[in-house]
């Protein structure tokens, strides 16, 4: 790859023809057919790619995410150069690297004396605001193109959303099925049903053997990047020893083909299941590759549908997979752009508690949280139920401030970008939008976690107990949540059953719930303490939060991100 500071060398037959277009390709846009590159002229254009500190540190991203993106970018740049395309690639440690998109774009414009700049719309509001600044201040005209990788353009989603107060994914999803023809028979859904979610809620049987993950040991490029990341971002969350993400399109296709053959036929049955020390189960593990552009949503949905048509996977498994991509992924992206920047500011349940330190350390006696956070530190990954019903459910029940929870989710996962993270956490996990996204909060007691996992077997707390120091905290926090928010939620039809139970509850039992919840929540940031009173082993509570140790966003960046 070409070092920064040197003009792009002429390709064969190029001679001294001046460069006319600078095509600025962001790190999550590694798709050969992306709008930025569709009309590229190798004789007149140069592609700019940059590794910049600001993008790695506006939140302190997991080390594996940074390593994944930098390695994937370097491999993609090499593939473009192999086609004879001029690439101006600025490495993180390149002399003169300004550390920001704007600074590197300005330097490239000066290096190449271009007539115009072409970019594709970004995935985050703060970068969209940057691009508006480029249009105003850069000099040469800046053309911002629609991201053609998504199946629902931003304008189409905005037209669908209109001025509706609530935006239900299921309605959107059915429209997208009709629009794309995926799993459709004429105007009707394949199998006569739109949604097979009831079939997709099984727990793993005891002794069930799950498939191995297909991993990709770091090659020389990735190894070099990992060393760079460990040195430059030593204080970031996460480990790199277990790095095994695909960093090229070829590797991503290999990983997805393995899922189609081994994971998809059983994916639907166990997509909500959890097991200690088995973080991957039947999941595709393609979200980092998909969100960075190594795969596209249409191709993976079409491939899954072909598997069903060929008899290689049952309908409920294929529909469950397609719903996650065509439904949830397209939906949250559309909602993000339709409602930002104001969307991030809402806090419907007035949640203000600080994020406990154990979200960073994993040091907690609650085994479900320790398992999920520990695996996230090791792999930069957790599947959707671990995110929603373990780490997310606890944050909801404990009343953790939305901005702090959202920052954590943006930091810790290799697939996290604000367009996908913010709506999922703000709307679905925390119900902070007051029902724009979901009709009710996804609150649950320990019984749900016990039904869908084996976490409770190794826990210092007793999931069968509803009150007292040794009771599972999720149990009394669940009822405390309902009591605390009764004025807001009691009339919600989807919560009628638990509120009827609450109305019949003995006042003494209600008082015990409130006392247990207050005791537990007041001690969240306490120093490590003994296990529950009738447990024999030591259990770690969350150490006091230390701002010097906890990954945190610069306050100026926080204000800019939230206000746009």
Summary keywords:
5% strand; Serine Threonine Protein Phosphatase 5, Tetratricopeptide repeat; disordered C terminus; 564 residues; Rossmann fold; 46% helix; two-stranded antiparallel ribbon; 7 strands; disordered N terminus; 3 domains; DNA Cyclobutane Dipyrimidine Photolyase, subunit A, domain 3; mainly alpha; five-stranded parallel beta sheet
Entry summary:
By secondary structure, this protein is mainly alpha-helical. It has 22 helices and 7 strands.
CATH fold-level name of the largest domain: DNA Cyclobutane Dipyrimidine Photolyase, subunit A, domain 3
Q: How large is the share of residues in beta strands?
A: under 5%
Strand/helix succession? EEHHEHEHEHHEEHHHHHHHHHHHHHHHH
How many DSSP E strands? Answer: 7
Terminal CA distance reads 34 Å
> Which CATH architecture of the largest domain would you pick?
Orthogonal Bundle
Contiguous runs where pLDDT drops below 50 for at least 5 residues: 3-15, 526-564
CATH class of the largest domain: Mainly Alpha
Shape annotation: globular
Helix content: 40-55%
Q: Enumerate the strands of the largest sheet in spatial order, edge to edge or round the barrel.
A: 3-2-1-4-5
Q: How many domains make up the coordinates?
A: 3
Instruction: Output the structural class.
Output: mainly alpha
Could you tell me the radius of gyration in angstroms? 24 Å
The overall average pLDDT, rounded, is 90
Largest pleated sheet: 5 strands, parallel
Number of helices: 22
Find the CATH superfamily of the largest domain.
Answer: DNA Cyclobutane Dipyrimidine Photolyase, subunit A, domain 3
